[in-house]
Amino acid sequence: MISFKQLPIEAKAAVAAGMVFFSMMLSRSYLAEKLDFRTQRWLLRLQMALFANTLMLMGSLHVWRSTVTTFTRSSAASSFCFMLWKIAVFMFLALAHSSFFTLLFLVAEEPYFFSLAAYTCLGAYIILIFFLFTLGSVEQAYKFLAGRGAKAGTGNKNRTALKPVLAVLLTVVLTVVGLLNASQPPTVNLVEIPVHKLPSTMNNLKVVLLSDIHLGPTVGKTKLAMIVRMVKALKPDITVIVGDLSDAEAKIIRPAVEPLGELDSPLGTYFVTGNHEYYTSDVSNWFELLKSFNIQPLHNENVKIVSPKSASDWFCLAGVDDIEADVLRYSGHGMDLKKALRGCSSEHAIVLLAHQPIAAKWALQERPDI
Length: 370
Prior knowledge:
alpha/beta, three-stranded mixed beta sheet, 12 helices, 2 domains
């Protein structure tokens, strides 16, 4: 029988990930009644960070073996440059792993440089893993097609060394492109949507939809203020924020949210939750904060949007909680279409706000008149 010590490090990491996941389920099932809500919230986020890191450990071992161990037998292995390379790879992996913990300790009005560096490394890490496995699969396919009888030689060694070099180069290029893209203002997509039963007095109604802003370790007040200016320049009749506004607790990041108070759409600004709101475990406080900025959360509920030209012309704007609330068993939350549409007349147009496309699909299957 194989003991735990004899297991390969990847298997040990998988076991550790399983134990962390089990502890998450245990704490939600048995410790919920014994801990105050704030402690529960912090513990869950810590467990999620540990779970992600134990899963990443397997990928990090592959990265180290591919980019460092592969070259230890080369003539350059004893050089000063190779030592610097090992330090660089180690720091890169350490920063990638630390990114999840910045959500717990490094959130403020504006992003910290460390958080930006950590999440940049996390993005590059994912790209690098993809290319290492893709190029590795291509290499294995080549060996299979070349035949089992082929002898190992200089060509094989060169291909083995070329794989990590090519993967790193591609990762650097795509990371730079990604950073340049992230530094640009958000793209405004203009879409015309025909709405059945919409009153003629509300034709050409302009709605600005915002999603996935993710205030937190990498997005702060400056970026949000820029987005708000862009929204105001569009002069919408209605503004809707459809989830993933933040990755942090409301109290911690409140100063960064202040630009939302400048939204002044004449027919109102509305909000529905995304999955990341539930990851913060702070949805109630987020609702209160948004209300203080005159933004109305639609928590499985609806409002009548009345035409400024005729009080008898209106449509029903409804919003549902994100489906992740059901997965996390978040008390008092979860997608409830019937509740969200309660009071909406089928004789009037109905517009539904939901964070995930799958939720919209489910809603249309149940209520094709939306």
